[in-house]
Amino acid sequence: MWRRAATAALALGAGAGGAAIAYSDDPSATLKICAHLPPRLLRDAATAATIAFDYQYSLWGLEPGTPAWLSAKHDAHLRSANRLQELCFRNGGIYIKLGQHIAQLEYVVPEEYVQTMRASMLKRCPVSSYEQVCQVFGKDMGESPETVFAEFDPVPLASASLAQVHAARTHDGQKVAVKVQHDHLTDTSVIDIATVGLIVNTLHYIFPTFDYRWLVDEIRESAPKELDFLNEAKNSEKCVQNFRRFSPHIAESIYVPKVYWTLSSSRILTMEFMDAKEVTDVKGIKELGIRPVDVSNLVSKAFSEMIFKHGFVHCDPHAANMMIRPLPQDSRKTFGWRRPQLILLDHGLYKELDYATRISYASLWKALVFADEKSIKENSVKLGAGEDLHALFAGVLTMRPWKSVIDPAVDHLVLDGSSTDRSELQMYASLYFPQISELLRRLPRVILLMLKTNDCLRSVNHALVGGSSMESFVIIGRISSEAVLEAKRMNSRSILNKLMIWLEEILLEARFFSLKLLLCFMQLKKLLAC
């Protein structure tokens, strides 16, 4: 097993290194990088082989499903997650991005991996030296940061897996945020993706039920786009245009920082500086005179509009990529609270849903909100889950067991964030791990990114309101229903069909009105109980 992993590592490394040198804009720099490839490959091979051996040895002779087997598997998961975390930090770059992907796939990958990565990957990112920042400016802009800008702070405000952000001031006095890519990432990414593939493929070869090759495929496709900051800038402008065109009723509540195109390149992105609170800074948000529940509702509205109506979705909405401030020039207040404006950052990772997928996904969420068992199955099958795994797909989307998904109770999808809820979900995830792996293999990659997006949003809502709120599901149900009705209108030709759609719309409005009444009643009851 060790020999097989090492041989694969050397063969893959030679090919990846050759490809990196051949396609690099700076072959000499890439050749220097590739000199460090052998130790990286040895680390990869050793980690993959150690993880595989740990699972085989730890579970040897134990009956699957027994307490001893579950305990041994938990311990093996934890040790392996720590090994993978250490590998990600030592190799950096794309490996950090892999760790962040895993951290955002709660209940899709084993809980031990998610919690280990979540505790570290968003906080311990690499920091480039100022000398390295100057090298990027020299190659891309032909000048130093001090020449390009009137002022440039050499100490970064924040650092992420692919870049870090510096405060600066333009020559006309505008304060800006300058995102600078870590040096040589474009070159090393080719090698890193290939070696990440080695680990995943090796583990899949030894454990056929461990099939996360889709994750490598996704990183292989998305990494070049995320590394092109001009592409990110274009995505940000398209996002704004979509809200103005398709969602004008909330367009003023969504803001994207202005891009300074003449001060940007494929590895440097200069944007308007934002003075706002991070979306999960509950204390700071309240100090601004904004209710956290209003922020939660706005986030739900914004992403529901993107997913069900725009079909162009920001797929990395973790807390660091969203900020909140009071809606500018707004004098309206609700019971003394100010209206929020959501600021979206980091537009590198977007996915487009084709028309059929978007409408099927909207139909599925509409069915989930209204506990429509027949429609849940029908649209799950359309999206690729199959008749045998439609219930599991619904459970992964909602984080609720099937009996709760089809429960007609108005709050059947609500998670209160309690330890009981969490324990139940962890039990299901562990019990159905092979079936979850098979489901992920079947689903289109764009839907897998929607799962990741759902998990990011769920985490943000949990921080804001202590779980998932019924109000957020009413919002999802309304916007998904509007998208489905609009699709029916577009395909309707006869007067009778149009009349039927009009009647369906009236019935839906009545249904949502009753839901709002129930919601108000539940909130009043909760208030009186305090």
Summarize the structure.
The protein has 530 residues and is an alpha+beta fold.
Brief descriptors of the model:
530 residues, alpha+beta, 5-stranded antiparallel beta sheet, 4-stranded mixed beta sheet, 22 helices, 13 strands
Describe the structure.
Among the domains are: 144 residues, no CATH class; 175 residues, no CATH class. Strands 1, 2, 3, 4 and 6 form a five-stranded antiparallel β-sheet that branches. The chain has a four-stranded mixed β-sheet with strand order 5-12-9-7. A two-stranded antiparallel ribbon has the order 8-13. A hairpin with a 3-residue loop joins β2 and β3. The protein is globular, with a radius of gyration of 24 Å. The N and C termini lie far apart (61 Å). α13 packs parallel to α21. It has 530 residues and is of the alpha+beta class. It has 22 helices and 13 strands. InterPro entries: ABC1_dom, ADCK1_dom, Kinase-like_dom_sf, Mito_struct-func_regulator. Pfam families: ABC1 (PF03109). This is ABC1 atypical kinase-like domain-containing protein. One of its GO terms (biological process) is lipid homeostasis. Keywords: Signal.
Task: Set out the fold topology.
Elements: H1 2-23, H2 27-34, H3 37-59, H4 67-91, H5 94-103, H6 111-118, H7 130-140, H8 145-148, E1 151-152, E2 158-159, E3 163-169, E4 175-181, H9 185-206, H10 213-226, H11 229-246, E5 254-255, E6 268-272, E7 277-278, H12 282-287, H13 292-310, E8 312-314, E9 322-326, E10 333-334, E11 337-338, E12 340-344, E13 350-352, H14 355-369, H15 373-382, H16 390-398, H17 402-405, H18 419-431, H19 433-442, H20 445-465, H21 470-491, H22 495-529
Parallel strand pairs: 5-12
Antiparallel strand pairs: 1-3, 2-3, 3-4, 4-6, 7-9, 8-13, 9-12, 10-11
Protein name: ABC1 atypical kinase-like domain-containing protein
GO biological process, one term: mitochondrion organization
Signal peptide: 1-21
